[in-house]
Design goal:
Layout lengths: L11 E5 L2 E6 L2 H4 L14 E5 L1 E3 L20 H12 L4 H17 L2 E8 L9 H12 L2 E6 L17 H15 L11 E2 L9 H14 L3 E5 L3 H11 L3 H7 L7 E5 L5 H10 L2 E4 L1 H6 L7 H6 L5 E3 L4 H4 L4 H16 L6 H15 L16 E5 L12 H8 L5 E6 L2 E5 L2 E2 L4 H19 L12
Parallel strand pairs: 4-5, 5-6, 6-7, 8-9, 9-10, 10-11
Antiparallel strand pairs: 1-2, 3-12, 12-13, 13-14, 14-15
Helix pairs in contact: 3-4, 3-16, 5-6, 13-14, 13-15, 14-15
Length: about 450
C-alpha cells in the first residue's frame, strides 16, 4: 500500500527491532552477517500492512446483543445506552479492551482508536485502565478523551462535566501516556462526541488544548438525519459548514461516519484535508445511512479509513468483516463505479493511518513500523478463489484467514490466538464484568432482565 500500491510476489521481509529493515527477494543472501532470531516460513501466505481501526467504543463490547436495543435507530438506541453508561467503571474499561481489541487484533488490526465519550462524573481512571489493558495485549492505541458538556433528551446529567475538569483530565492523560515520537504505541487525542451538542466554551478549549499539545481531535460528524436537521434548524447551516465556522476542520481533525454530506460538504472536507472514518456495519445496523466513500476518494480525500465503531451498534470488532461489508455497500450505492477491493484495503491500512495523523504505519517499506498481518489463504474455505490476492482478502476473506499479527516488531497473534495474554482468562473476566454492568442497569431498564435470566 505504498504510493504505487506495489505487489511483490515470492518476496521476503526483514524486521529488525520494531521496524522493517528490507523488502525484496532472497534477503538471507543479501544480509549474510545478520543473525536471525527467527525465520518465519510464509510460503503460500500473504503479508499486508497491519489493519488500522479508526473509530471504536471499546467498552460497548460488554453490552451487545441485548433485546432492549434491537431494531432501534440512533437516538432511541442512545437513550438506552446512557442508562447503562451511568455505571461505567475501570473494570468495564479494562474488560472492554480485552473483548473488543482482542477481537480486533485477531481480525488483523495492529492499531486502534477508541473514542470514550461518557465519563460518569467523579469516576476516575477509566482511560487509564483501558490504556494499560491495550498495552497488555500489545496493540498500538489511540485513545480519545471525549466528553459531554450539556444535558439533553439523550445525554444524562451523570456524564456531563465542566470544561475545567475535562481539560484537567486531558492534561493529565497527555502528560502520563502520550508519546509523539515515531513508532509511538500510544497517542492521546481529544474531542467532542457531537460538537453541535456541546458548549462553544469547551469546543474552543478543545482546539486550544490540541494545538498546545500538538495532538489530534476526533468525534462524530453527520451520523444521523436527526443531527443534520437539528443543525440546520438551530444554526441555519449543515453540520460540515458548522464545523468549518468553528475551526473544527483541518489536518488535526478526523471524524467518524460522515454520512449525511452533500457535494459541497465533501468539497469542504477535501479542501481542509479533514480525515474521515467510515463505519458501514454500524451505520447499517442503526439504519443511519451510508458514507459516500467513492465520492470522497474521487474528490481527493486521502485521509479516509474504516472503523468498526462500538460493538453495541455493530455487534463485533471484526475488521475483516468491516472491509468486506464496506466493499459490498459501495457496490450497492455506486454499482459499476464503486470502490475497488484495493480502495477498501487502502482505507483499512494507509488511508486509516493518514486519517489518524500517522505516517510511520499503514504500508510496508524499509524504515516503517513493523506492523504486519499475515494471512493464510491456503485453507479450504478459500479454495477456488485464490486468484487476485486483494480481492480474496477484501471480498472473500474473514478473520479465519489471520495467521499471524506483528505489532511494533512483536508477534501478538499466532495461529489465530493472542500471544501476550491468556485468552480464556480474559474471556471469563469480560463475561463477568459485562453481566455485572447489565445487572446494575437492569434496575433502570426492565427490558434487560430478560437477557440476564
Amino acid at each position: 500500500m505504498d504510493d504505487e500500491r506495489t505487489r511483490l510476489r515470492h518476496g521476503d521481509l526483514l524486521v529488525c527491532g520494531n521496524q522493517i529493515q528490507a523488502i525484496g527477494k532472497n534477503l538471507e543472501k543479501q544480509y549474510p552477517d545478520i543473525k536471525m532470531d527467527r525465520v518465519i516460513d510464509a510460503s503460500g501466505k500473504l503479508l499486508v500492512p497491519g489493519f488500522v481501526n479508526t473509530h471504536h467504543h471499546t467498552w460497548q463490547a460488554l453490552i451487545r446483543n441485548i433485546k432492549a436495543t434491537q431494531g432501534m435507530s440512533l437516538e432511541p438506541w442512545l437513550t438506552v445506552m446512557y442508562e447503562i453508561y451511568k455505571d461505567l467503571n475501570q473494570e468495564v474499561a479494562r474488560a472492554g479492551i480485552y473483548a473488543s481489541l482482542g477481537e480486533g487484533m485477531k481480525s488483523g488490526c495492529t492499531t486502534s482508536n477508541d473514542l470514550w465519550y461518557p465519563h460518569p462524573v467523579y469516576v476516575e481512571g477509566l482511560m487509564d485502565a483501558e490504556i494499560e489493558a491495550a498495552k497488555e495485549i500489545g496493540i498500538r492505541f489511540h485513545p480519545v478523551r471525549s466528553y459531554h458538556s450539556v444535558v439533553s433528551d439523550v445525554v444524562c446529567p451523570e456524564v456531563v462535566d465542566t470544561t475545567e475538569r475535562v481539560m484537567a483530565d486531558a492534561e493529565r492523560l497527555v502528560e502520563k501516556y502520550h508519546d509523539p515520537d515515531t513508532f509511538s504505541m500510544c497517542q492521546v487525542a481529544i474531542g467532542p462526541s457531537i460538537a453541535q451538542y456541546d458548549t462553544e466554551e469547551i469546543l474552543r478549549a478543545t482546539i486550544d488544548f490540541a494545538e498546545k499539545h500538538d495532538i489530534m481531535v476526533h468525534g462524530h460528524l453527520a451520523e444521523s438525519v436527526f443531527e443534520t436537521q437539528y443543525t440546520i434548524e438551530k444554526f441555519g447551516c449543515r453540520p460540515v459548514e458548522w464545523f468549518r465556522r468553528h475551526d473544527l476542520l483541518g489536518d488535526r481533525f478526523y471524524y467518524a461516519h460522515c454520512i449525511h454530506l452533500d457535494d459541497n460538504d465533501i468539497q469542504i472536507m477535501a479542501r481542509t484535508n479533514t480525515g474521515v472514518s467510515s463505519c458501514p456495519i454500524s451505520n447499517m445496523y442503526l439504519s443511519s445511512g451510508s458514507c459516500r466513500v467513492k465520492d470522497m476518494l474521487n474528490s481527493g480525500i486521502k485521509r479516509i479509513g474504516l472503523g468498526v465503531d462500538g460493538a453495541a451498534s455493530s455487534n463485533t470488532s471484526n475488521f475483516m468483516e468491516e472491509m468486506r461489508v464496506s466493499y459490498l455497500l459501495n457496490r450497492l450505492s455506486y454499482g459499476s463505479g464503486s470502490c475497488t477491493a484495493e480502495d477498501i484495503l487502502y482505507m483499512g491500512t494507509r488511508g486509516g493511518a493518514r486519517s489518524m495523523g500517522r505516517e510511520d504505519i499503514g504500508y510496508l517499506a524499509p524504515g516503517m513500523a513493523a506492523d504486519i498481518t499475515m494471512l493464510d489463504w491456503g485453507q479450504l474455505q478459500y479454495a477456488g478463489g485464490c486468484n487476485d490476492p486483494v480481492d480474496c482478502i477484501v471480498i472473500s476473506g474473514d478473520a479465519r484467514m489471520v495467521d499471524m499479527v506483528m505489532v511494533n516488531g512483536v508477534i501478538t497473534v499466532e495461529k489465530g490466538h493472542l500471544t501476550l495474554v491468556k485468552e480464556e482468562e480474559k474471556r471469563d473476566y469480560a463475561n463477568q464484568i459485562g453481566r455485572e454492568l447489565l445487572s446494575r442497569a437492569s434496575a433502570r431498564i426492565p427490558g434487560l432482565k430478560a437477557d440476564l435470566q
